[in-house]
Amino acid sequence: MKRYLDIVIIVLSLCFQSGWSQETQIVEDFKPSTMNQSEKQFPQVNSQRRVRASIAAPNANKVQLDIGGVKYDMRKDANGVWTGESNLQDEGFHYYQLNIDGASVPDPGSLYFYGAGRWGSGIEIPSRDQEFFELKNVPHGLVIENIYFSKLINSFRRCFIYTPAGYYENTKARYPVLYLQHGSFEDETGWSSQGKANLILDNLIASKKATPMIIVMDNGYAFKPQSNEAKEKKERPESIFEEVLITEVIPMIDAKFRTIANRENRAIAGLSMGANQTMRIMMNNLETFSYYGGFSGTANYPSTDPLDASTFLDGKYKDGSALNKKIKLFWLGLGTKEPAPFPKSVGAFRTMLEQQGIKYDYYESPETAHEWLTWRRCLYQFAFKLFK
Amino acid sequence: MKRYLDIVIIVLSLCFQSGWSQETQIVEDFKPSTMNQSEKQFPQVNSQRRVRASIAAPNANKVQLDIGGVKYDMRKDANGVWTGESNLQDEGFHYYQLNIDGASVPDPGSLYFYGAGRWGSGIEIPSRDQEFFELKNVPHGLVIENIYFSKLINSFRRCFIYTPAGYYENTKARYPVLYLQHGSFEDETGWSSQGKANLILDNLIASKKATPMIIVMDNGYAFKPQSNEAKEKKERPESIFEEVLITEVIPMIDAKFRTIANRENRAIAGLSMGANQTMRIMMNNLETFSYYGGFSGTANYPSTDPLDASTFLDGKYKDGSALNKKIKLFWLGLGTKEPAPFPKSVGAFRTMLEQQGIKYDYYESPETAHEWLTWRRCLYQFAFKLFK
């Protein structure tokens, strides 16, 4: 028996050393990332889901690849080209940067995305299920950049609008609308760029799994103009995103596009901060929306405390049976690798829903954290169920 | 007399030393560039049209600002922040980058633009006449991203489409179309980003100076698929942009949008390489287009030799009086500071037009080179005259 145990231990320790640990050997099957600029060879990704970056910096002292909160030292060759690899990354899309002698800069090889509060590099680690957001030879919808002036904010804003394939050819058809929001330190560009919302819907609609719909992606940062006095005192500006969305954006969209302008044909969803925001907007405007999607976030964030339905959001969740009649779909999603406080915070919210007898759908994205593959999957699962 | 001359010489030399020369003192009225990422303080521009860049790179040996083909050394302060200024720049938009110990990278402070064959930093030097491309509180058209599959190229391509304000509200109105092309090492994003084509048309249309029109901005790089043998031999691929535009893009646009689908309501224009391409397409397809605009380029590029109308472009310019009847507008534009061979090359072409008695409009953009302010001004002047 002792002998068998010894063998098991030896086998396990070999596994840890060779295959399971981050210290494993690097497999030399790197390919250029699909998020690279045209014809750029680096960064690359291998079958282990490592990232390899490379940059010419002949006079640098130290160059690092900065991804997933870890900085990896790169090595300099005789030509002054630095190359280095990360440990194993999760499947999906990650923001990253290079660090050259202390300067954090975008990688000149990658395309650029807005996230983490800046335009910077992004990389795609192939995922098992990526087929659902791939660019395929199916009819494609259009993504429209719409600049508008907000009287409430007294400045220009921008939203992007997805119109499904056929919108321009079927000039009589009217469509339901999903209002879809980004997360914190992101903006209105995220969902149709790294979020692949347009391709996800193109594929769903082409395979007749989703109802053709319009998607509106606005910027969730919308603040009431401040007096100079308030600015000087550095007072926190008041968010008026709900007011902007309800009184400016929705009327503009209904005037400009062939929407079906009623609550039965209007959904609202968001990720992280956007889930929090849109949950509040949903509950304050049940005459406007009948479908809700919360991806990696709920309105109790960042609290993980048990919720009291009689007081939480002014008691909006008190009457479960009334909500069950009113709301057509209340949908929540989360990645299995999300960090604190998301699992417990969303968990506390779910417990409250269950205590109130409120029906909801819950989806878990396997092996993803608080990142875009979680949200792409959430959109896919959620859009599937809308307007049916 | 000698005394007066001496004074004149002293005054002139003072002028050269203090105000006229590049060695003049730096005026400390720098402001963040309008092309910066939200809330980023650098890069900045001053009233002299100098660029000041700044980046934290505490362990770097040498950091440079690389703009207009010149690298300017930056200075390191006690906190490891490097700052430096360029000499005087032309008004308008310029691509630039930073160089950190030999690594050429985008500036993390700027927005990014596709040009010079890469996504990278751009900066805007205020111009006297910038009012014509500013974002104003006028009705705004939309910019639409359209993904399509080209059978001729056997791959996905993308074009951007500008629809004028009112297109979505006036559901019966039909519009003329301008096909507008970018230059070499640029792509389909240029005209509606650094080119400001949408804002230029918004402003022109709002002030009733231009006829409301649709603009289609495609990618001018379109090559016939090559055999593996040809690829191995590194044969130059054959451009089939004309065929893609005429047989795929125009029918797609006419099917999808409410165009007036005839030659009287179709214009074609381009900048630099795009001027060369679209001039050939215009002359090969006079049944398709009746307006032509060539910005900083003609089809004889890079030659500056005199042109023989009986042989140039297969004699397409031979019959001047027939062309004068057929073409509604033949328009050429050039910046006064354009480098060789543009002035002489365009000049040789104009001489040929004049010899053939072909009517054309000619515009010179004051104090600009082969850059986007030249092309924005050209679009403004050209669009003004279209479809009238």
Automatic annotation (TrEMBL), chains A, B:
<dbReference type="GO" id="GO:0016747">
    <property type="term" value="F:acyltransferase activity, transferring groups other than amino-acyl groups"/>
</dbReference>
<dbReference type="InterPro" id="IPR050583">
    <property type="entry name" value="Mycobacterial_A85_antigen"/>
</dbReference>
<dbReference type="InterPro" id="IPR000801">
    <property type="entry name" value="Esterase-like"/>
</dbReference>
<protein>
    <submittedName>
        <fullName>Esterase</fullName>
    </submittedName>
</protein>
<dbReference type="InterPro" id="IPR029058">
    <property type="entry name" value="AB_hydrolase_fold"/>
</dbReference>
<dbReference type="InterPro" id="IPR014756">
    <property type="entry name" value="Ig_E-set"/>
</dbReference>
<dbReference type="Pfam" id="PF00756">
    <property type="entry name" value="Esterase"/>
</dbReference>
<dbReference type="InterPro" id="IPR013783">
    <property type="entry name" value="Ig-like_fold"/>
</dbReference>
